[in-house]
Design a protein that fits this description.
alpha/beta, Rossmann fold, GMP Synthetase, Chain A, domain 3, 5-stranded parallel sheet, about 20% strand, binds xanthosine-5'-monophosphate
């Protein structure tokens, strides 16, 4: 009678550390029962869901887990480094780190169409993951950070945007320990597992990463401008106490230039667009009223610290008519 993919009607919401500890204890037992002495593979992006699954599996089966972190070159500043620091150094996990930046950026060179960019990133991700997993022997389980909204809305945001997902290899049995949890519950569990606060509170980040914010054909210098400006925005939002309050905020660098003046000389450089939105379900969104002094400070820093940028704009458009991302 019990469908393992449906949340039981009497399942309490996980809100407190004690509830999270109870969930963790129960999952550790269930994971050990499912996996036995087998080996598990996990694609660890560093997002909340896969990070919590990794931490649960490390607790349950330790060295029987192998994590693969593919850096597609479209990660935010410091993100891959944090994955290595937390999972390899602090938690002692088996972690295979693949820097596939050149592969992805070479494949994407000159490609301006948003859907083609997404397809290339999705397909290349699967290829890299398959190549790496083929080098491993004796793996019988594939762990995934599926959460309850992914099951409820199988045609929802992730399914709509992410091309393909991970290979559904018939040889692997799926391990999905957080499949009955909502996002806020996953965060409570992550905190109880001791993951760093900035990892637990991470805002949603699209699978194709900064690639959809480097509008049009991606170039390395414009991608660097997206990454550096995003890091400044996050730093200033944290200082202003906005990071836990605003749902999603990031920068975009469009593929055009305008005239400006820098150090007394004419410049012809890119603008950086700031976006900060609030939403319940990402289907519609409103724009955050960022205090003017915060916007001015961010503008000052981006125009002085990010090479190739001479203007900063704030996107005032709700969804609809704009989508949250620019591509
Ligand atoms: P849009 O731009 O459609 O975005 O208003 C809605 C939410 O989805 C995120 N998003 C993605 N998530 N893969 C994902 O997993 C993607 O390709 C993708 N594109 C957009 C976006 O960041 C926002 O939170």
């Amino acid at each position: 009678m019990n469908n393992p993919n449906m949340r039981p009607a009497d399942m309490a919401r996980i809100e407190t550390p004690a509830q999270a500890e109870a969930f963790i204890a129960q999952q550790v037992e269930a994971l050990r029962a499912q996996i036995g002495s087998g080996k598990v593979l996990l694609a660890l992006s560093g997002g909340v869901d896969s990070s919590v699954v990794a931490a649960l599996l490390i607790r349950a089966v330790g060295q029987q887990l192998t994590c693969i972190h593919v850096n597609h070159g479209l990660m935010r500043k410091g993100e891959s480094e944090q994955v290595i620091e937390v999972f390899q150094r602090q938690l002692g996990a088996n972690l295979i780190y693949i820097d596939a930046t050149d592969r992805f950026l070479n494949k994407l060179a000159g490609v301006a169409d948003p859907e083609t960019k997404r397809k290339i990133i999705g397909a290349e991700f699967i290829r890299v993951f398959e190549e790496e997993s083929a080098k491993l022997t004796g793996i019988s389980f594939l762990a995934q950070g599926t959460i309850y909204p992914d099951i409820l809305e199988s045609d929802g945001i992730k399914a709509h945007h992410n091309v393909g997902g991970l290979p559904k290899d018939v040889h692997f049995e799926l391990v999905e320990p957080v499949r009955l949890l909502f996002k806020d519950e996953v965060r409570v569990v992550g905190r109880a597992l001791g993951l760093p606060e900035d990892m637990v509170n991470r805002q949603p980040f699209p699978g194709p990463g900064l690639g959809v914010r480097c509008v049009g054909a991606i170039t390395r210098d414009r991608l660097a401008a997206v990454r550096e400006s995003d890091a400044i925005l996050r730093e200033e939002f944290a200082k202003a106490g906005l990071s836990g309050k605003v749902w999603q905020y990031f920068t975009i660098v469009p593929d055009f230039k305008s005239t400006g003046i820098k150090d007394g000389k004419r410049s012809f450089e890119w603008p950086v667009v700031l976006r900060a939105v609030n939403t319940r379900d990402a289907m519609s969104a409103t724009v955050e009223e960022v205090p003017w002094p915060v916007l001015l400070r961010i503008t000052d820093r981006i125009t002085h610290e990010v090479p190739g940028v001479n203007r900063v704009l704030y996107d005032l458009t709700p969804k609809p008519t704009g989508t949250i991302e620019w591509e």
